[in-house]
Amino acid sequence: MYASDVTSRKRNQAVFSDISRQKELLNKGSIMRINYQKGGTDYAYMMDLEKGCINNTCLGNLPVYSVSGSFSTDMTTAGATSIDVTNIIEYGYSLPVDSNGNPIFPAGPTRDDSYIPIPMYGMQFYFFGVLKPQMFWSTNCAIVFSNPGQRVVSISGNSFPAILLGNYDRRFDNLYVKDESIPSKFSILTLFVFYEDFTKQLVSTPNTGQYRVRIIRELTGANRQWIEVSVKVAPSRSGYIAGDIDTDGNPVDATKLSPYNITNGAGFTNLCGTTFATVGPAAGSSFTFTSDSLGNNWVFRNNSYVPV
Description:
- By secondary structure, the chain is mainly beta.
- It has 2 helices and 17 strands.
- Strands 2, 3, 10, 11, 12, 13, 15 and 16 form an 8-stranded antiparallel beta sheet that branches. A 5-stranded antiparallel beta sheet has the order 4-7-8-9-14, with no helix packed on it.
- The longest helix has 22 residues.
């Protein structure tokens, strides 16, 4: 054993991380067996780890990765806070109302082209090197970090920092937020989002799009971050891409390859390539965006979830 040899220790910790990941995949049924190294100090080190004799001090607790597969999307909102949108400004089109102010086509607390504050519950979330004290849910399916104060149907790469999750002319139906943090391990905000396609229609069709979005920050080790999106009900339209004209008659940003995207406010990363460009994620599927501790180096993984 090379307890004082930093290079050897880090190499062995990498072996430990690899086997930990294999165990996660084995438990999920993604692989059939774990491939241990045979003999040598790596093998002896692993045996000591299995006995609980050595702590993985380099990486902290058991490493977590986004793993292959689809997360079962449970939209049960028990214990979650329903976000009151009574005083939220609507920059878009309100549903028609009768003389008493009641919607002619009742659809609940709907909003069009609005920005709804997301309770942070003490989470520290970084985006491209900047600590973001506030997040908003754009009713056109995006997480934004400030309120633009105006109607924005198709978000452009050079407009404002945002995480696009099927950006299109949508109508908001309901948002529930739940703090599901694991003390000293993960900050987790779970959003239950109910929405619908909306193109100046008079009749509302509530909840024809349903997401569960988990915003996760690791509190140990590398302090990584994840955006995990699980789809319960897929909307009929994936969203705006280059070449489209939005409902206000404006051409969509020519650099926008997918309506599922990330922008730092200067330009799109186009992490997804053309994935979801014309057909969005299917009901029952999930995907993840992963970053480092400062919200840089984002990575997209389709058909994945975070096993925490």
